[in-house]
Request: fold
Amino acid sequence: MTEGFLPYGRQTIEDDDIAAVAAALRGDLLTTGPTVEAFETAFREVVGARHAVACSSGTAALHMTMLAAGIGPGDVCIVPSITFLATANCAAYVGADVVFADVDRDSGLMTAETLAGALDRAKGRRVRAVLPVHLRGDVCDMPALAVLAREAGAVLVEDAPHALGSCFVHGNELDQVGDCAHSAMSTFSFHPVKTIATGEGGMVTTNDAGLAERLRRARSHGMTRTPGADPWLYEMAEPGFNYRLPDINCALGLSQLAKLPRFIARRRALAAAYETALAPLAPIVRPAARPEGSRPVLHLMTVLIDFAAAGKSRRQVVDALAARGIGSQVHYIPVHTQPYWRARNGALDLPGAQAWYDRCLSLPLYPAMADGDVARVVETLADVLA
Ligand SMILES: *Cc1c(COP(=O)(O)O)cnc(C)c1O
Reply:
C-alpha cells in the first residue's frame, strides 16, 4: 500500500474540480468570459490585495510586471541566484540586465545583506527592480528589503509562486504574501506542482490601480477600449502579448482556491511531521533554515544534506531514493552559473548560493500524501545515508 512512487510534488484534483472544468466547457465563453474576473476577485480577497490580474503562467506574470513597471534596455534588475530560471529571464525579455544577488547559505533566501552586496556591485547603474523569491514558501524579510529598494529607487516585485498562504510577522504586523504591503507587485504560478493548479496559469497582485491597468494591457496585445466609444474601437499605444488565462483554467482555479485552507492545513501538518521525523538525522540532514518572522506554508520540503560527511554523493542519494519509490529534486541550480548568464555577465562567485546548491534536496510534499508517507521518506533517507 505504501509502495507507490512519491513524486516531490503533485497536484490534488478532485471530482468537483473536474465538474467545474466541465461546466466551464459548456459555457458560452471559453476565454475572456466572466470566470476570469471571478477568479481574480476570489484570489485578491484571499491574499488581501486590491487588484489581481490572471495570466497564462507564472513566467507571463513576471514578464508583465517588467512591462508594467516600464523596465527596458539599460535598466538593471536584481535577482537572487537561487530561483527558477524565469525570475531572471523576465528581465532579459525586456532587454534589461540582471545583477545576481547571493542568498543566505542556510535559508536560500535573499537577505538585506545579500541585497546590499548586489546593490554595491550594481553601483553607478540604473537599478530599477529587485525581485526577491520566497523560496519553498519561507518568506524574505520584506520590510528590510523594502528599505534598501526604496533607497536605490527600485520597485520590489515578489516572485511568490512558492508562497501562496505564507505570512511574515514583524512587530505587531502580519503580512500575507501577495498583499503587497512592502512591494509594488507579487507574482504567482498555478503550475501543477504549486499550491493550487490550473494546468498552466499565473497571477499578479498589486495595490496600485495604474500598475493593474498596465498589467491588463500587457496581457492582451496592448489593447485599450474607451467606455462610450464606438463598440468596435480599440487602440494600441504599445504592442502587448496574449498572456490571457482561459475561463476553463479559471474555473479550475476557483475550485482549487476554495480548497486552499485544507491544502494549507495539510501542508503544515506534513511539514511538522517531517521536522519531528528528521530531527534524529541532524547534523547530517537538517531542514532549510527558517528566517525570523517567516510563517510559511511550505511548497517544498527542502533539506540540507552534508553529503561529504555522509560519504555519499547527491547523485547516489537521489538514485537510491528513486529506486525505492521516492522522488526528489534540486531547487535550484544557481542561475548565475547558467551558460547564458555566464556569457553575458562573466564569472561570478556567490558563496551562499554555492553552499546552498551543494547541500539542497527537496523531498516529497503535497496534500495527497498519506500520514505514513513522511515516515517512509525519512526512514528511507536515513537508510540510504547510513
Ligand atoms: C514556477 C515558478 C515560476 C514560473 O512559473 P510558471 O507558471 O511555470 O511559468 C517562476 N518563479 C518561481 C520561483 C517558480 O517556482
User: Anything to note?
Assistant: Residues 57-59, 83-84, 86-87, 133, 159, 161-162, 189, 191, 202 surround pyridoxal-5'-phosphate (CB under 6 Å).
